[in-house]
Automatic annotation (TrEMBL):
Belongs to the SEDS family. FtsW subfamily. It comes from the Bacteria. It is found in: Membrane. Its EC number is 2.4.99.28. It catalyses: [GlcNAc-(1->4)-Mur2Ac(oyl-L-Ala-gamma-D-Glu-L-Lys-D-Ala-D-Ala)](n)-di-trans,octa-cis-undecaprenyl diphosphate + beta-D-GlcNAc-(1->4)-Mur2Ac(oyl-L-Ala-gamma-D-Glu-L-Lys-D-Ala-D-Ala)-di-trans,octa-cis-undecaprenyl diphosphate = [GlcNAc-(1->4)-Mur2Ac(oyl-L-Ala-gamma-D-Glu-L-Lys-D-Ala-D-Ala)](n+1)-di-trans,octa-cis-undecaprenyl diphosphate + di-trans,octa-cis-undecaprenyl diphosphate + H(+). The keyword Transferase applies. Keywords: Cell shape, Glycosyltransferase, Membrane, Peptidoglycan synthesis, Transferase, Transmembrane, Transmembrane helix. It is a multi-pass membrane protein. This is Probable peptidoglycan glycosyltransferase FtsW.
Amino acid sequence: MFKKIIKSYDYTLLIAICMLCFFGLVMVYSSSMVFAASHPKINNPEFFYDRQKLSMMVGFIGLLAAMIFPYKAYASSKLLSLIVFGSIGMLLLVAVFGATANNAQSWLMLGTRGIQPSEFTKLSVIIYLAAVYAKKQSYINDLNRAVLPPILFTVGICFFVMVQPDIGTAFIISLIAGTIILCSGMGIRNIIKLLFFGLTCVALFLPFLLLKRESIFTTERISRFQGYLDPFLHEGDAGYQLINSYVAMGSGGITGLGLGQSIQKFGYLPEAHTDFIMAVIAEELGLFGVLFVIFLLAFIIFKGLLLARKCTDPFGSLLAIGISSMLAIQTFINLGGLTGLIPITGVTLPFISYGGSSMILLLLCMGILLNVSMFVNYEKNYKKETVTQNVNEPKFKNNRYSY
């Protein structure tokens, strides 16, 4: 049985995850070494590389644990309550004791390291919505009983994240939740009603936005929209980062300047190791490097959605959809920002950009996805084997064997 379980894991998915992580680690070092070496408080070219490596090690421990732990246990009432109240408690701790960075009080400091609870809230929302809607499949079209209560919880979570303020993460959580809700099995009429409900929630948030407009609509956030609409008109301030992203991508061409040979990372592209790391990849490794990353990310997303379709368990299927949609949404927002398709949001590129909380969360999610794949493949192979045995097994009838 143990051998069957080991064989049931999707190793192509695991290989793709490992390739992205180790490639990202190399690019974090390449893109951050100049900034880290020249920074007066750091003065160590391997500073961000070492921190990312440590986060990756912790993340892979979490991935292995999540691979082994049965995903169906997350839907149990006790563990689900712990996940929900734990995420709410972490957000409340941030509101009271959180550290501020980039105009947002969204960090909890653990010694010299910090964690961003809002990142882990994404997984909490995915697990909660998947578990609740899976349990309510028999009456999923009952809007008041089945649909609205989980949505109200999601709205509350988004509110706590927004007051940090971290509008980008709140937006991502709402999009992930929306994807799970749309795939939960409800009818088209309820979906239309939910759209009206969403518009109502937006209208209710307007007074809060007006009340907190000075802290939410800061000069920095307004400048991102100005830089997005016309970066060359604001090339000295709001459009500076986006223009240098264009320069980096244009300089790389098809084959790139060579690994480690980026010019833009020498202070032209601010903090290139975070949300603009793809620009450095394009400059150093060219179009081939960009396509390599996009292909692996698309492969993981595709495998997750394919797994959701194969999974006969509603909870496992919705888990796979939620995790895959999170990966797809973050990838689109990051690439859309550095290409000027959408305003810059500061969202990291999954598995590639520097970010400890993001890396640990993503690897935890991948561990859950691998566990779902193991159950799906094991059930498929075991049933097939059982059916074959039953067909070939002789039946005793009237004191004679008949086949």
